[in-house]
Amino acid sequence: MGETPLSRTRGARVGLLGKTAARALRVSVATVWVASVCIMALPVAAATPTAQISAASTEQTISAASGAAAAVDREPEVANERDIPRPVQIAPGVYAMLGSGDAVAPRNHGIVANNGFVVGKRGVVVIDTGASYRYGRAMIEAIRRVTPLPIELVVITHQAPEFVFGAAAFRDAGVPILAHRRTAELIAARCSICLTNLRRTLGEEEMSGSRVTVPDRTVEATTRIDAGDRQLDLLYFGTAATPGDLAVRDAQTGVLFAGALVSVGRIPELRNESIPGWLAALDRIHALDVNEVVPGFGPVVKPDRIDSVGQYLRELDRGVHDAYGAGVGLTNARTQVQTPNFRHWKLYSVAHPQNVQRVYLQLEPH
Known about the structure:
The protein is an alpha/beta fold and 366 residues long. The protein is 33% helix and 17% strand.
């Protein structure tokens, strides 16, 4: 069940582990992976040559997998203002709200990812919505302090939980929500697991009112939209960090909200990625007229700083392939494959071994 009918569109050896043991470990690891990152890829569809935007004709609600109702007895509170990042103007009419970049934990209220908004002459466009309904409401209040103009649209760049669960607050305010079709499908299929895990991690009070909110508008390919009297390029490069990654570029200022494609100072968490596609997407970003990049995690940077993401991905991929080819088993590969240049990045001790594991398992015979 989703909030909307979505638009119609378009061998090597196992190593030192025995095959039986490796298969068992793969099943165990897959279970843990789904529980921790909540996202599994659906079959990848080819992009159509032209972009389409579809609007939903009906609206429904997905409750948490645990059975918690989307509605609550009392209206959820806005997250405490001292915990909410203040909007930082990085270009005329372009604001970023920067999370801590840490792992989600009660001490940071799940406010770890970046989001932002663009103010046009007629209205506001929001890019990503945070990890909870409370944060989404707080974001609305923060926008109101910047401008009295109405919020016309929310764009979700990808389906990671730190970016999507504030969307319900915007849906309740009557704001349409847009994403790539593949992202909308993954939100509908998998995000109830994410919500259950966030409730366990952050608690019922912090996640009060949060629910899975499926975008009611979708795009299939790169397209330019006029929202709030502002020209925005919704950029789709194919499967990269996720199957439905969008980057959002403000044509007036050249600011790019990169979503899952860029992480600065924090190890990117591989989920449904294509490393070759991801590297190609970074190359295509370099070819664009971009002045500033707002990554999914980390500080706002100049375009040349995104090279570090590609460097990590190449070192990771090469290290795993070398270990696999040398007959190193999965358990040993998790500790032996290192990327020393990135040891100082956040989540290295946790996310990097998981990334090694994911790339390794992709090399096993199926």
